[in-house]
């Protein structure tokens, strides 16, 4: 492969097709991860993509393959996920470049400090003829393990909202301020966190998480004056998700008002649920079956670069069973035999796509919906 780094920090490897003007198939996943992460979320999909090319052993296909290792998919540092894939679909705007991390460093500054030129981000956008994007990823949940199946085709990805909340109270002396005269921002935040959990517990399919909290000034003998929190809300129905976010904002306002403090919030992400490409999903199911596994279709509760790529090109995913359903944790793992099956499935899939597109007549591609 010839390898390059684009201006958003995505690492791309190009493996040519039979003809120099052959269309491209994108294969990959993300390179970044979360704090205290496991070893497979994201990177496994990049390694599988590279392994597939290794297994081709120089054999050329009627399409070129571009392996992509996306930068910053998780959204941990700047509160906004999918930075790398957004560059590929041309959706990096000034607001995104100005998002800041906890130290106040902007996306623009981080990219430039890394030695890349943000003026070149528009060139990262994919252009020309793409067959689609395919991503291998661990399921990160318990479904496949429970079903006793190593692989699944992902048919949709749940939408997600991410917000930041700040409860602003009054910091004061913890020894001298009577309980009824306090304006404790952390106590308000705690009440709200429990309200969020209770609401999500009572709504089918809704998941809502406060994953991070920062209390200021952050001393044991000071009543907290400011509490900053993150909120992550997901559901397969965008309407349910958006209503839930409104509800959580309403509860935060209510709690703050009752306690005589204020609350501010900022939306960081409103990503709609995304269906995967029906034809690619069907091909993946066929490849899973040829590998000797019982096919299964499922929704992804986790977000993936595939939901961004789907804005521009047909996209689909293959999930690998995740032992114990554990992810975003050092205990995350995957069975070697399942990885073996995934690679085998990937090779069948490449062959299927190659035979479907071998003549590359526009008629064939149109029928595949890839024209
Ligand atoms: C990505 O891991 C996500 O948060 O869904
Ligand atoms: Mn992740
Ligand atoms: Mn991931």
Mean pLDDT: 95
Name the hetero compounds present: glyoxylic acid, manganese (II) ion
Query: How is the biggest beta sheet arranged?
Result: 9 strands, mixed
User: What's the order of the H and E elements?
Assistant: EEEHEHHHEHEEEHEEEEHEEHEHEHH
Strand content: 15-25%
The helix/strand class is: alpha+beta
Number of strands: 16
Number of helices: 11
Q: Please tell me how large the radius of gyration is.
A: 23 Å
State the share of residues found in helices, binned by percent: 25-40%
Instruction: Report the uncertain regions.
Output: 359-364
Shape: elongated
Reconstruct the topology from this structure:
Blueprint: E1 2-5, E2 11-15, E3 24-30, H1 43-56, E4 64-70, H2 83-88, H3 94-98, H4 107-113, E5 130-138, H5 143-147, E6 151-157, E7 159-168, E8 172-173, H6 185-201, E9 207-209, E10 213-216, E11 222-223, E12 226-235, H7 238-258, E13 262-271, E14 274-275, H8 278-290, E15 297-300, H9 305-309, E16 315-320, H10 336-357, H11 362-368
Parallel strand pairs: 3-4, 3-5, 5-16, 6-15
Antiparallel strand pairs: 1-2, 2-4, 6-14, 6-16, 7-12, 7-13, 8-11, 9-12, 10-12
What does this structure look like?
The structure is a single chain. By secondary structure, the protein is an alpha+beta fold. It has helices at 43-56, 83-88, 94-98, 107-113, 143-147, 185-201, 238-258, 278-290, 305-309, 336-357, 362-368; strands spanning 2-5, 11-15, 24-30, 64-70, 130-138, 151-157, 159-168, 172-173, 207-209, 213-216, 222-223, 226-235, 262-271, 274-275, 297-300, 315-320. A hairpin with a 5-residue loop joins strand 1 (2-5) and strand 2. Helix 1 crosses helix 10 (336-357).
């Amino acid at each position: 492969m010839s390898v390059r780094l684009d201006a958003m920090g995505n690492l791309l490897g190009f493996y040519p097709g039979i003809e120099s003007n052959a269309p491209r198939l994108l294969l990959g996943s993300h390179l970044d991860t979360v704090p205290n992460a496991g070893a497979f979320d994201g990177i496994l999909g990049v390694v599988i993509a590279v392994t597939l090319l290794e297994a081709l052993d120089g054999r050329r296909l009627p399409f070129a393959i571009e392996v992509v290792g996306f930068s910053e998919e998780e959204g941990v540092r700047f509160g906004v996920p999918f930075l790398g894939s957004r560059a590929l679909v041309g959706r990096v705007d000034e607001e995104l470049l100005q998002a800041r991390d906890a130290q106040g460093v902007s996306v623009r500054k981080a990219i430039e400090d890394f030695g890349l030129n943000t003026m070149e981000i528009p060139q990262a956008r994919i252009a020309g003829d793409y067959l689609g994007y395919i991503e291998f990823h661990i399921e990160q949940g318990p479904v496949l393990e429970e079903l006793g199946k190593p692989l699944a085709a992902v048919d949709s990805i749940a939408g997600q909202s991410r917000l930041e909340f700040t409860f602003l109270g009054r910091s004061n002396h913890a020894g001298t301020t009577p309980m009824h005269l306090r304006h404790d921002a952390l106590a308000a935040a705690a009440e709200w966190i429990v309200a969020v959990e209770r609401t999500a517990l009572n709504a089918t399919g809704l998941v809502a998480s406060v994953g991070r909290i920062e209390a200021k000034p952050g001393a044991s003998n000071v009543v907290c004056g400011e509490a900053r929190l993150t909120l992550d809300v997901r559901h397969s129905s965008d309407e349910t998700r958006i209503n839930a976010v409104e509800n959580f904002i309403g509860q935060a306002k209510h709690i703050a008002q009752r306690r005589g403090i204020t609350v501010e919030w900022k939306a960081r992400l409103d990503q709609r649920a995304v269906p995967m490409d029906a034809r690619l999903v069907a091909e993946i199911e066929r490849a899973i079956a040829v590998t000797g596994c019982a096919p299964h279709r499922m929704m992804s509760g986790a977000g993936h670069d595939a939901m961004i790529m789907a804005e521009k090109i047909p996209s689909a995913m293959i999930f690998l069973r995740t032992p114990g359903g554990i992810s975003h944790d050092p205990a995350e793992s995957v069975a070697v035999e399942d990885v073996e099956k995934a690679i085998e499935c990937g090779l069948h899939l490449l062959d299927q796509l190659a035979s479907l597109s071998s003549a590359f007549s526009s008629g064939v591609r149109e029928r595949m919906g890839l024209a």
